[in-house]
Amino acid sequence: MDTWMRFMSNDGGVVFGRVENGYLHEYDSLDQPVPTGAVLSLRTLTPLAPCAPGKVVALWNNFHALAAKLDKPVPSHPLFLLKPPGSVIGSGAAIRRPAHYAGKIVYEGELGIVIGRRCRNATVDEAAAAIFGYTIVNDVTAADLLNENPHFPQWCRAKGFDTFCCIGPAILSGFAWRDARVVTTLDGVERQNYPLADMVFSPAEQVSLISQDLTLEPGDVIACGTSLGVGSIKDGATVAVSIEGIGTLSNVLAVGGQDVAAANAAAVPA
Amino acid sequence: MDTWMRFMSNDGGVVFGRVENGYLHEYDSLDQPVPTGAVLSLRTLTPLAPCAPGKVVALWNNFHALAAKLDKPVPSHPLFLLKPPGSVIGSGAAIRRPAHYAGKIVYEGELGIVIGRRCRNATVDEAAAAIFGYTIVNDVTAADLLNENPHFPQWCRAKGFDTFCCIGPAILSGFAWRDARVVTTLDGVERQNYPLADMVFSPAEQVSLISQDLTLEPGDVIACGTSLGVGSIKDGATVAVSIEGIGTLSNVLAVGGQDVAAANAAAVPA
């Protein structure tokens, strides 16, 4: 198991690599993981989302417990929407309330799959081999927009706003997801705590089935869907999603706050 | 009015520029339109989609005539889904039937807006200035998947398959869209012929409103939605979408056909 992160350096460049004992061992990139030889202290670096996905595929209804609660049948194929690249922020950055939206904003703590190599029509075994590692996603939704128009459910709009896809803090390769739980807290109070073993489609099954539809590229992220305990975030509240081994993804909901985003991004973890 | 195209050169490089009298006057890029000084004969070049969008925003229900026929109210905000970057092909390339899908595949001839500069919270005037030009889109759909699951309409999946977003052949800057019509033929028989003046949200209104939600980046495409005459494409049939001044976007529906795609891509227009 290795922990991989992405940072902005003091000169504004982006560095990616393996993190160990407070240092970043730099690598060329996620799909060409060749060490550059550079070793940097994390103290001088500002964390970013651990990858820069060209697309984020977000699953709906992928946990048995949530399907039972919603009284929906378990799907026979992954049901998904797309979140745009510009919606991605890292841990510590602020989720920004859209200027013209006063409604409910909802968190969903999720496991994220990070693709390591191009993947099309993959078997389940090929799909497993194409997974670089696992991260944490908070799949944020402007919930009141979803069914605002009775003729067209606005999944992409409600979930696609800038800053509505929190990813991080790290990618863990070789992660035994089946034994792990997703724990979400809202201002420190636990709201979600569910086992990943309850997933309908396993990560390799998701990658295999989705790759029959869309070519998946290195750095793309699949958000595996959430389970029980989804709820709304008040302005100023902090959502923290933890998966043991990967870490904690923490983001505040700010109003209008480019400055808040910058301030949070500067809070480098030890 | 200038015509802009993108090509693959013999050495596998991608070139972009202004087309005039059978020659490409190369420019750095769409967002930095600075001439490089190179002038290339089109005979040596293979056409690609005229831009490489990081995201394609596709509108639903944006024409009064179609809204009336579907008996749906005209929306108060653009209703959209996202098509992934990997779904984009140029004119002459083949639409490929997904391996595990035997159902109906549908064409939609549309005007495409190509974004020229980063655009966030833009006024209508700022939005108009951020439009680089206009292209043609065939927004292809695996129609039987859309409502296959009664609990979740699969817009992104049905419209997101590789090759399901045909864009081209060119981008026309300074285009007077209001006077133009979209004409779609299927194997030479006219199926759509509708005026762009019937649009609900004008291009600048679309860019302005969507930029309140998502930051639009240079090269991003907004497909303006279609009107009357949508229909299904039989395997082997050719869909040609024309807008006078921009040109004709022509794509065949192939089964299994990487080879067909390559053969079509090699058919360089004069």
From TrEMBL, chains A, B:
Q: Where is the Fumarylacetoacetase-like C-terminal domain?
A: 55-252
The answer to whether keyword Metal-binding applies is yes
Q: Does Metal-binding appear among the keywords?
A: yes
Keywords on record: Metal-binding
Checking SUPFAM superfamilies in the record gives: FAH
Listed GO MF terms: acetylpyruvate hydrolase activity; metal ion binding
Q: Which domain of life is it from?
A: Bacteria
Give the protein name, as stated in the record: 2-keto-4-pentenoate hydratase/2-oxohepta-3-ene-1,7-dioic acid hydratase (Catechol pathway)
Q: Which Pfam families match?
A: FAA_hydrolase
Show the InterPro entries listed in the entry: Fumarylacetoacetase-like_C, Fumarylacetoacetase_C_sf
